[in-house]
Amino acid sequence: MNTRFAVATHILAYLAHAQPGQPVSSEVLASSAGTHPVVVRRLMSTLREAGLVQSQRGAGGGTVLARPAAEITLLDVFRAMQASEPDLFQVGSTNPNTHCDLGSVMQETLEGLFGPAIEAMRAALAAVTVQQVMQELGKRLPGGCTDASG
Q1: Record's InterPro entries (predicted)?
Q2: Is there a contact between 21 and 65 (Cβ–Cβ < 8 Å)?
């Protein structure tokens, strides 16, 4: 999934860090995440479709969380990013030679091996909320997470 998941998580953490109800512009989010505002806008579109953020247009517009950070899990973010990209461990798109002994059983073998790993990853992501990400960030910020200046 390249960096989409990490940047989307960054966006949500920043929105959770901002003043409640205060919209944040894509330019501010892009500056914090170290990426281009167009990238942020595309990700926010995906996050909006997943019901994780809400956008407000016009002067003073921007994006806010659609629900409390404690109710958004990293699995929600992962699933939102998957809506436009396949699974990290996608094996359905491979096309092994079925006339080859190895190729004829590769798909089933990989699915059996990757399945438990994918489920463990999903369970781990489901156990972490954006609020917990903020708590971890707060441990690393001088003075904790008290302002939204970056």
Answers
A1: Tscrpt_reg_Rrf2, WH-like_DNA-bd_sf, WH_DNA-bd_sf
A2: no
